[in-house]
Every structure is written in C-alpha cells, then in structure tokens.
Design brief:
By secondary structure, the protein is α+β, with helices and mostly antiparallel strands. It has helices spanning about 1-35, 115-140, 165-170, 185-195; strands at about 145-150, 150-160, 175, 200-205, 215, 240-245, 250-255, 260-265.
Length: about 270
C-alpha cells in the first residue's frame, strides 16, 4: 500500500515537470522556423570632416641628414675665463748692457791704517790657496794610488784630453807624458792601465816634427827598445802622429786630435 502511494506521487511530479518543458520546446520550434535575410544598403554620402584628433606619440628617430652648408660667421663672443698657466719658457738671450749711470756720491773717508804688510801677507795667502785648489782638482782627477820606479813616479789621470792638452797638463804640474824607455817601465804602465779597468792611454811618444821619426816627449829619440803592436806604426789616413799604449802593453800610432786618458811621469826628486 505504501509502495503504491510513492509510485503515484512520482507519476504526478513527472507530469507536472513535463508541462513547462513542452511549452519551451514549442517556442524554440516556432523561432527556428522564421528566417531573416540581412542585405547591405547603398553607400551613404560622406559625412562632415571630424575635428582634429590628439597628436600621436613620437615616432622613431630617423637617420641623420646630409651635412648642410657652412653658415655665416657669427659675431665675436665675450672673452672666456682665463686658462691654466702654461709651462715656463726657455731662458732668453742676454740683453745689451744698459747705459752707464751717474757716479755715486763719495764715500766717507776711511780710518788711517798702515796695512801694507797685512795686504801683502793676505795676497800671498790667496795665491797659495789658489795653487792648493788647483792641485786638489788635479789629485781628484787622478786615479787613487801611483806607480813608482827607482827614479820616477807615474800618475794615471782619468780625464780625457787631446795629446797636446794632456802634455801641457802634465807639464803644468812639473812632469811630462810618460816615457816607457825600457821593458820594466812599459810593463809597470801596462799593469797600471789594467788595474784601472782601461783599454788604452796616451803616452809621451810622437812623430809630430818629422813623419816616421818617433821621439819621446822630452825630444829624446827612441833607441833599441819599442813595443809596437803588429803592423804598427802605420800612419793610417796620414794623420797618426801620436802614440797610445793599450792594456797589453803594445804601442799604436793614433791621431793626435782624439781624446783619451793619459799617464803623467814625474822625477822623484821634484815631487
């Protein structure tokens, strides 16, 4: 009984729900049967020109144009600010002496003084100081230490001079350019050159007065002793009239105008 009642209620509910759906389906069926065809009309007349729109955003930067012609020269501008100070220029030449000025007034008279003897003494002292200064310069230019034989003292001077200037330099100090007149003296000077780390020096031999006639700086002729290197003297270019000693002790004739170090010779009794 109870199951029959449930079945009856279900039938009624289904029937109730089917009524609206049937009406909706009929409405759709009616709408689908009506067909509307849309056809475009003729082109109308042009309308009035609209107002100017807002400016668009800037486009991309185009390529640079060709260089234009040079314009006219502008007016001169105002003076700019001062630049940095430049480097100091080179020293100019000495100018001409100015005109002599008028003489100044006479000075006050000095105090009477018998200063003759004092002035004489001061003058002598000045001369002695000058001589000592000259000798000190000579010693400074000489190599430390000297070489000696029984009668001679030899001093190597490290100052490049021409032959004649070197001879005058030695003579001004009471000597002469070295004159190796025997094997022992020659070996002594050669050893002196080597110990000083030099390769050659002027010695006191030349043929300035007569070509091929070599003499010592005291004008004495060469005797049997000589130490000419192989092929020397050769008077190359017809201008080699002075003599050098090389580190091995050999002699070579050279031009007198070139400069090199030299060895002075002094008598012991005069030193």
């Amino acid at each position: 009984m109870k199951s029959d009642l449930v079945f009856f209620v279900s039938i009624i509910s289904l029937a109730f729900l089917s009524l609206p759906r049937s009406g909706y389906a009929q409405h759709i069926a009616e709408d689908s049967c009506s067909v509307q065809i849309l056809v475009p009309g003729l082109k109308g007349e042009a309308g009035e020109k609209g107002e100017k729109g807002a400016p668009g955003r800037p486009g991309r930067v185009g390529p640079p144009g060709e260089r234009g012609e040079m314009g006219e020269k502008g007016e001169k501008g105002s003076i700019g600010r001062h630049g940095k100070i430049g480097p100091i220029g080179s020293k100019g030449e000495k100018g001409d002496n100015g005109d002599v000025g008028p003489p100044g007034p006479n000075g006050d008279p000095g105090i009477p003084c018998e200063c003759g003897q004092l002035r004489t003494a001061i003058g002598k002292m000045d001369n002695q100081v000058a001589m000592l200064t000259t000798e000190l310069k000579f010693i400074k230019k000489a190599v430390a230490g000297v070489r000696e034989t029984d009668n001679k003292v030899y001093l190597l001077v490290k100052e490049e001079k021409r032959y004649m200037d070197a001879q005058l330099y030695c003579q001004g100090r009471g000597g002469t350019l070295s004159m190796p007149k025997d094997e022992n003296t020659n070996a002594l000077i050669a050893s002196y050159i080597n110990q000083a780390g030099l390769s050659r020096v002027f010695i006191g031999i030349n043929d300035l007065e007569k070509e091929g006639n070599f003499v010592y700086s005291d004008r004495s002729p060469l005797q049997t002793f000589n130490k000419w290197s192989t092929g020397e003297p050769n008077n190359a270019y017809d201008e080699e009239d002075c003599v050098e000693m090389i580190a091995s002790g050999g002699w070579n004739d050279v031009a007198c105008h070139i400069t090199m170090y030299f060895v002075c010779e002094f008598d012991k009794e005069n030193v």
